[in-house]
Amino acid sequence: GAACNSKRKVEIGNKVASNSIKTSKYNFFTFLPLNLFEQFQRIANAYFLFLLILQLIPQISSLSWFTTVVPLVLVLAVSGAKDAIDDFNRHKSDKHVNNRPVQVLINGRLKDEKWMNVQVGDIIKLENNNFVTADLLLLSSSEPHSLTYIETAELDGCLCVSSEVKCEAPNNKLDKFTGTLTLRGEKYALDSEKMLLRGCTIRNTEWCFGLVIYAGPDTKLMQNSGKTTFKRTSIDRLMNVLVLVIFAFLALMCLILAIGNGIWEYDKGYYFQVYLPWAEGVSSAPYSGFLMFWSYVIILNTVVPISLYVSVEIIRLGNSFYIDWDRKMYYPVNDTPAQARTTTLNEELGQIKYIFSDKTGTLTQNIMCFNKCSINGKSYGDVYDLAGQRIEINEKTEKVDFSYNQLADPKFAFYDHSLVEAVKLGDVPTHRFFRLLSLCHTVMPEEKKEGNLVYQAQSPDEGALVTAARNFGFVFRARTPETITVVEMGETKIYKLLAILDFNNVRKRMSVIVRSPEGDLTLYCKGADTILFELLHSSCDSLKEETTEHLNEFAGEGLRTLVVAYKNLDEEYFEDWIKRHHVASTALEGREDKLSELYEEIEKDLMLLGATAIEDKLQDGVPQTIETLAKASIKIWVLTGDKQETAVNIGYSCNLLNDDMADVFIIEGSTSDDVLNELRNAREKMKPDSFLDSDEVNIQFEKSSKKAKLLPDEQANGVYGLVINGHSLAYALEGNLELELVRTACMCKVVICCRVTPLQKAQVVELVKKYKKAVTLAIGDGANDVSMIKTAHIGVGISGQEGMQAVLSSDFSFAQFRYLQRLLLVHGRWSYIRMSKFLKYFFYKNFAFTLVHFWYGFFSGFSAQTVYDEWFITLYNLVYTSLPVLGMSLFDQDVDDRWSMLCPQLYVPGQQNLYFNKIVFVKCMLHGIYSSLILFFIPYGAMYNTMRSDGKAIADYQSFALMAQTSLLIVVSVQIGLDTAYWTVVNQFFIWGSLSVYFAITFTMYSDGMYLIFTASFPFVGTARNTLSQPSAWLAIFLSVTLCVLPVVGYRLKAQLKPTETDKVRRYIKEAKKRPPPPSPKRRLRRTSTRRSGYAFSHQHGFGALIMSGRNMRPKSPFATTGTFSPNSDKNKHKGL
Amino acid sequence: MAVNYSAKEEADGHPSGGVGVPGGGAVGGGGAVKTRKPDNTAFKQQRLPAWQPILTAGTVLPAFFIIGLIFIPIGIGIFVTSNNIREYEIDYTGTEPSSPCNKCLNVSWDSTPPCTCTIDFTLEHSFESNVFMYYGLSNFYQNHRRYVKSRDDSQLNGDNSSLLNPSKECEPYRTNEDKPIAPCGAIANSMFNDTLELYRIDNDTRIPITLIKKGIAWWTDKNVKFRNPSGDTNNLTALFQGTTKPVNWPKPVYMLDSEPDNNGFINEDFIVWMRTAALPTFRKLYRLIERTNNLQPTLQAGKYSLDITYNYPVHSFDGRKRMILSTISWMGGKNPFLGIAYITVGSICFFLGVVLLIIHHKYGNRNTSADIPN
């Protein structure tokens, strides 16, 4: 990889960027203006600015400027501080990234440079485990064998000459790149396979050279980041609606009061002018009413408190931190904690109704394990104890010792010793079985060091089978286009490879024809049981029966099965056949048909050898997680690029589908009508009356126009599953079939979509979002899941395995699928409950607080006189009541995490949105109105025409204000106490602290000293002392508190008669605390009764030809080896449409 | 060759679109051995020890009964106390033609000579302890926003600059004829200025009853909130030099009383007036009648007459004026509201307790078992 510096021109549109990145928004000087500008773009802040302006109009101003300014400044300061910290961290990490060292090739010599100094057109050298500095065109690397980028020979030393790279303008499509390299007048096409993208890490490669094509902000990574669509939660939307409702309510109140003022001024104020002349410029009662409207807007603005939005943000942030901090969602293997990448969606996690999951890498590890097999009618793979009982395999189970085999793969694990014994004893069928496995495949071996074999399998199933054969002593060691070298029980044998009868989706089998060193001519075949059983020789019938039994057993466990068979060929016949084969394979017309005819001809009368069972290894805890989520009434849809068989198999192995289901519908129609019929039949079976006109969905559908609208949930008469393949899905997503699909699919408990493209994944999610009032969650790990992750309400990325794209576009990320149940059932549920409680309380406390002014209006000439001291109004939301409610919404738990997981039914209220909705809001409002009435009329009655115990005044405005505000504060404190279910020290401290702070501040503000220093600001001097020393004041306060709280307690007690699930669980826990915790339920082994083929094979067509052609088979894309795309899915999914 | 995207490391340096990326905060992955395993603290793992009370019938029902049992006696106590208070009230507005003050109904501020009227009344019961004499006004909006703020506390607190340059809040009673008004504002301007005198009629002789005019304002008001301008307090006239009297007042503020410690801004009648009432119907302490003789009630049952110098017009806005004589208990003046409210709430509590108990007894034990896997 030598290259010298010369004129390299990289043309990207027009501009050329340096590699320094800037993700920070502000610098020291621009922070204040820019940040303020941004903040005032928020509606809430702008609204308060508007209020502030209103307050500056003297005729309107009903409150001093500080009542609005202090909260506004505080809110701006908190948000500003948060932005500043964020930006500071961005500055720091920018600096760190920009200063990373990299080696740049300058004048043929390597020179250390900082990342930020790398320019487009530079050639840089990267070493193992380095981060890729910029988007590079890979020129050469230490691993020539596995590279298919640009022929290295052509490039070695090439760049001495003038070369030119032309490429498209920077964009954010990670998997797309087009460009041309012009070298010595010749053009070479460049595509994404020849690119190394910034954000990747070099692995298993000593070094490589790359030409910088996109740098800094132009890189795919940077183009991709920062532009995430802004997701809002349903509570957000509800909150916006409610805020509008509150605005309307506010306007109504102001209107009533303004009219009241007009009448009052006309009726009384006009005559009262002897003592109180009308304000300057006010000449008529209606005009006064008009001004009063705005004055009341100012006073009553606290029904929409500015601190609402800030508090919501803080709560969500806090609850996001809990996700980051959760040790139970930390995956030690790759040191990955869970991460809440979006901190604004937490409560939505408690409302998920549909989960859309990717399969490979999410549910499964994409690791295939040779798990069981059946050879000549004997099943291997299960482990039995001395009593003959089957035991479950776990880490402690003793593995089979393969030390007799030098070439064994140490990672391979098998537990059944009897199979090894059979091999060692030289059992002929067993040997033939493994010989077949070592010969009949399209795997490429790689042996870098003696004995260190690495298989490059384009289907992981094949890899698993060949590895199994290898460990049992039939080591596939090397291949050429004509030969296969196998070390059979230590003895090297070279088989002549005569033909590969390649796999395809119709044949569902593959065969090889080989000649052994001994000269035997044999056809080895492996394939789907359903196909192969038809091709067997009649002498195998009894063996077929036994094998079928084993296959059923394997299939029931969700294993992927293949049947293997062989046939000894007649020499003459084969000579003839191979000639015809040659003719057919070179035919120009109908080659495929001719070949498959030939294949059919030779693949018959096969001798059954046995069957293999491969476990598509699930991620840890997947079946349990799915079971738990299903109990929480979450519907799970698996969207996978895999084939139908594979997907169904996984469905069974991870407990999605099981034989207890009434039926599993399979939609595989290839025309629009077929699909429609299949869907309708399925629906007919699930809910026969759903076609009647009387069905409520139909009625509703009739009533409104054909436009998209929400469908209610329909109940099926049993538990059903649905499998639909990508081809049918394409039809089903069209036009009017869409509705049919949603109705049918949403009635099923489980839906599996196979062979879907990334776009279809998003379409499916979009479909459910469109027709169902439900919160959706998409979980995936690969680039093909990005679209669905972005589309769903919540996107979850599995981090640490396939790459960063899913994670980068996700809202939450963690390393294992099983953490999903904790994320939803614990964090989501808590967040939802906390947010609901917070909103309920928050609206309540502000209604109770503000509406007192409304009632007072009727007794103060509608003059916009406040009930409370202005300082109290200023501090109420920010100081006196903010911390207790924050404490509740950060610490509250109805039941602890263990019980949340044990009782998934607790999740259901969240899905139904029971804890905070419009009805709850109306209840809050009524509760607030009731409290405000009490809070006004009790002090009113208590001080009407009365005196202190020394005869002096107590019915003055200031004493009344103090009494009302003290009652209010105690009432809301008691209320938060009633709402808090989980009293930690912090809650106690906040509640008692807030009350104490209230009294401390009140006594301070009303003290002589404060008055003498700031005479004009604290006119309430002495009120606290004079009023709160009166028993009647305390009696009134006590009475208002009791009256406000009692109905709540009574109502809650009444509600206890119909206890919710939560109440039941809490009571149960209380009783259970005395007993030891319940053991987690034991999982039983599943047995199937019905016949189901477990055939699944992630193979694709065309590799046989490649091998026979002699061209080295190499991975298609550099990402394929890490499995970014399910290897079998990409190719077919485009074809399928 | 394999290429792995490493999300976490690179993401540290890039915006994620969300509101900041929380977490370990380790920038870059270069060689940091530090594990990213979250700390095992009770706070971070949400395992803070907590008390989890559950609202059950067992805790709530006793509470209802206890509240009932506490409230009813308190209510009865308050009610009895309130009922034992002697109170006598005369409306002397004079709206009825038969009223002696009817002639004064349409007085204005500056009528000279002042209109006077006398109302005779009889106390059926004697007033044993100290008696407090109030004037009461109805339909008088002392709590109107513009009225409440129409004052200058700095001026009233003796600030000399505010004295001569009162706050804008006092408009339109800030200046008169280019001179600053002291005290400024609508409250001061509308100060109640009827004079009430009380006589006991004993065999047709009018025995004047001593009315004490000091000690009727809050101590804090008298000593902290209200102060005369600094200077020689014996010569208030000089201190208020350069100011003018409120428009409605017949005489300036420094001539409110003859005693220097009850004159000017610290005149108690003035202070009492300046403490604005919360409601449009209110009473304000006017005078004290102290019990001087331990053997005799302060006011024995019998005939009395009230002499009114009727200066304060309220008829134009349908206001009412009253004179109230009242004794006081430990919890203040006569107010049956609290007592009745307590008794009512206590009874309701008790009643609800019984109802809930019955309901609970009847239906409470159904449907309470949870469907919990075990």
Structure description:
The complex is a heterodimer of chains A (1137) and B (374). Chain A is of the alpha+beta class. Chain A is built from 38 helices and 32 strands. In chain A, the strands form five sheets. Chain A has a nine-stranded mixed sheet with strand order 12-31-30-29-13-25-28-27-26, with helices on both faces. In chain A, a hairpin with a 5-residue loop joins strand 21 and strand 22. In chain A, helix 1 packs across helix 3 and helix 18 runs parallel beside helix 21. The N terminus and C terminus of chain A are likely disordered. Chain B is extended and about 85 Å long. The longest helix of chain B has 28 residues. In chain B, a hairpin with a 2-residue loop joins strand 6 and strand 7. The two termini of chain B are 51 Å apart. Chain B is of the alpha+beta class and 374 residues long. In chain B, the strands form three sheets. A four-stranded antiparallel sheet of chain B has the order 3-12-5-10. A four-stranded antiparallel sheet of chain B has the order 4-11-8-9, with no helix packed on it. Chain B is built from ten helices and twelve strands. Chain B is 26% helix and 18% strand. The interface between A and B is large, with 165 and 135 residues. Strand 10 of chain A pairs antiparallel with strand 1 of chain B.
